[in-house]
Design goal:
Length: 146
């Protein structure tokens, strides 16, 4: 891992100044992944996620430049997060109350800084301080392991 890596935590009301930087990292990390990964759709997704109570972001900077970030939020009661989950699963598994499950929604590192332990550092910094009893992460089927 980089010695000059700086991790910072942010709440939704603290990210307006870096919103464009977040979108830039997203587009860089998804370069070549297809038209689904576009600026307009991601800005809508990010704006929607930031409205969820408990949304939190951890950024990683190297030499002052945003190298990556991770964000997530507690799953609210009535969430659609689990729609599409394949059975069988234990009774009550998909029940949420806004305090049970933390959903790690995005974990992104710019290609130039991938495979240097930054994603692990972001993950650990974001998740380790959460009060929820469990965490979920949605990943693409074709996502290569780090």
């Amino acid at each position: 891992m980089k010695d000059n890596l700086i991790l910072d935590r942010h709440r939704a009301d603290e990210v307006n100044d870096i919103l464009d930087d977040l979108v830039e990292v997203y587009l860089d990390a998804h370069s070549g992944d297809g038209e689904f990964y576009n600026e307009s759709r991601y800005r809508q997704q990010l704006a929607g996620h930031m409205k969820v109570a408990g949304w939190e972001l951890v950024t990683a900077r190297i030499d002052g430049r945003l190298a990556g970030y991770a964000y997530g939020f507690p799953l609210p009661a009535g969430t659609r997060w689990w729609s599409g989950i394949e059975e069988p699963y234990p009774a009550g598994f998909t029940e949420e109350d806004g305090r049970r499950t933390f959903a790690l929604s995005e974990l992104l590192v710019r290609p130039a800084w991938q495979r240097q332990g930054i994603a692990r550092a972001l993950h650990d910094e974001l998740v380790d301080a959460r009060p929820e009893s469990r965490m979920t992460l949605l990943a693409r089927h074709d996502n290569a392991p780090a």
